[in-house]
Amino acid sequence: MAERDTTNYYELFGGAPFFADLVSQFYARVATNEILRPMYPESDMAGAARRLQMFLEQYWGGPTTYQEERGHPRLRMRHAGFKIGPAAKNAWLECMEAAVNGTDIDDVSKAKLWTYLSGAAEHLLNSFED
Ligand code: HEM
Predict the structure, then answer these.
(1) pLDDT truncated to tens, each residue of the chain (130 aa)?
(2) Which of 50, 56, 59, 122 has the most crowded CB, counting CB atoms within 10 A?
(3) How far apart are CA 19 and CA 53, in angstroms?
(4) Domain 14-124 classification at class level
(5) Distance 115 CA to ligand 1 centre (A)
(6) What separation in angstroms does the CA of 42 have from each of 30, 69, 80, 118, 119?
(7) Which of 29, 45, 52, 69 maximizes ligand 1 atoms within 8 Å of its Cβ, making it the mutation to test the pocket?
(8) Which of 37, 75, 89 to mutate to test the pocket of ligand 1 (most atoms within 8 A of CB)?
């Protein structure tokens, strides 16, 4: 039987400072992206950044603050109100790829993170049109 992977990736990546760095680099790009910027709440970018950071920290084995504040993630349901076609998905991935590459984790960690994020974005595609 395969051994269970008990690595705590939250700690391995660098804990809260790592996720804060990743998310702030991501949102700096969203803020200047013409497809994404109009989709995000004008007056609550800090809130959006906080929600994404809490979610990612929880997903990778860190504090469960996301669940406590927001309940079950249900990401497909929470994204249903936004039209996510190929262009929006690609824009999101471009911003996130640059953010991941801008962090100082090693290449194996980057690949691990990227495999998850790209799969999750694919899963959230909810339109075939832009
Ligand atoms: C595929 C392209 C994507 C687009 C266009 C997109 C867009 C958005 C938008 C506009 C919001 C609302 C911002 C807010 O007020 O919180 C949001 C929320 C969120 N997104 Fe995405 N997103 C995408 C992919 C992803 C992926 C791949 C993840 C996770 C790996 C993710 C995680 C989240 C989370 C956790 C929230 C906050 C949910 C909540 O608690 O309300 N998103 N997204």
Answers:
(1) 678 889 999 999 999 999 999 999 999 999 999 999 999 998 999 999 999 999 999 999 999 999 999 999 999 999 999 999 999 999 999 999 999 999 999 999 999 999 999 999 999 999 999 9
(2) 56
(3) 6
(4) mainly alpha
(5) 17
(6) 12, 21, 19, 25, 27
(7) 52
(8) 75
Q: Are 78 and 86 in contact (CB under 8 A)?
A: no
Q: What tokens appear for 10 in the block? A: 């939250």
Q: What is the pTM of this model?
A: 0.96
Computed over its alpha carbons, how large is the radius of gyration of the chain? 15
Assess contact for 108 and 68: CB atoms under 8 A. Answer: no
Which structure tokens are listed for 3? 């051994």
Ligand 1 atom closest to the CA of 41, numbered from 1: 15
> In ligand 1, which atom is closest to the CA atom of 125?
1
Expressed in angstroms and rounded, the spacing between residue 39 Cα and the centre of ligand 1 is 10
Give the ligand 1 atom nearest the CA of 52.
35
Extract the tokens encoding 27.
Answer: 């949102």
